[in-house]
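Lecture notes, unit on protein representations.

Consider one protein chain, 477 amino acids long.
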Amino acid sequence: MILDYVGVKEINGSLIVLDNVPNATSEEMVTIRLDNGTTRQGRIVQMEGNRVIIQVFEGTRGISLDNTETRLMGRPMELPLSPEILGRIFNGAGRPIDGLGDIFPEKRADINGTPINPVSRVYPQNFINTGISTIDVLMTLIRGQKLPIFSGSGMKHNELAVQIARQAKISDENGSNDFCIVFAAMGVKQDVADYFRRSFDESGVLGRVVMFLNLANDPIIERTLTPRCALTAAEYLAFEEGKHVLVIMTDMTSYCEALREFSSSKGEIPGRKGFPGYLYSDLASLYERAGIVHGKKGSVTQLPILTMPNDDVTHPVPDLTGYITEGQIQLDRGLDASGIYPPVSVLPSLSRLMKDGIGAGFTREDHSAVSNQLFASYSKVMDARSLASVIGEEELSPVDKQYIAFGKLFEAKFVNQGFNDNRTIEQSLDLGWELLTALPRSELDRVDEEMLNKYYEPAKKRVEASEQKENGEKATA
């Protein structure tokens, strides 16, 4: 029997309270009908005996204590799913906003998902090629991994997100047609949302992208649903349609701030910086939806992007994210200010799963060696720069001066990369070896002799030939 409950007991922000509601369930959807005939959607977010607190998605403007009829739907919030969601654009609550009509669903799925049995998880091993040298060589993204990008306000993380979505592909050529992107934007301005939509359309990848756009002026309640809708779509495409899905979510800080505001309106006791005490478990319920399931062809890989308030990596959002995820890609404001794109800060960035997804059979046999050597050499660059700031660059030893020169080349040619520059893993590794020729062979202590003979010496000859060619052209001119 369906019952309509007339009137509400209290109204508090986006929340309404009903008394004497038996048999309600947590997360149950409700329909709210106003006396002017309009309807709104909501869900039960808290229960105290027969009292229920309902979160209204469209806000409580126009709702009074006696002009509403509330009907419990008997089910949680569900997302309509079918293969035709590819190429479509939805709002944060999963409703189409591209003017192409509604989805005719093959099924509907609870947006909260279902936990993956740890026993059924498959260890991630195959890499995803993003076409960006710093990521592919030094902090490789592995299929099934969750690897966040830590950025700062005003930095080029939106451009980086678009470039990765446009260029990313899996290494298995046979499965390249089964690769797709789920893109979720939370709390973005209208011009940023238009930039995402236009960039995907102009680059021709929109047909393999599912977009969820929550704008800054949309209800915060919708913002708390956006990542769950995106991950539900990703799980359907991966585990039922057999696709390899890369989920890009930006900006997770906006999601967490919406969660803080919602928690405050419920009167919950705040934790660090006002965020709810359950922020860790809430983020974990999102991030842990990445992975590969035994017996399923597809995979879900997450690349969440978050902005660090005041560039503070100890802020609760990046701090807790770092505990849950398998590494991070950190952007540097100093590199960004000097015009380097993408401004990836190499030393604090890492991918904890890359060691098992690179090398012979995955990328190339020298990948691990060249990655370790570039990390070690660049850390010595930082030491040399710190010493130069004290005693002056002229007083440095000849080897330290070579490291200073290597650091400039590394940032200018390896880290710095054009927005439309899509490098293969072979091109990135060859470039790494060519840059290492700026250092004496005796300084390359992370690479064995066999690898040096096979890759370092040919790279040195290529660099010398290139320099001779440039000198000849200058002499002719």
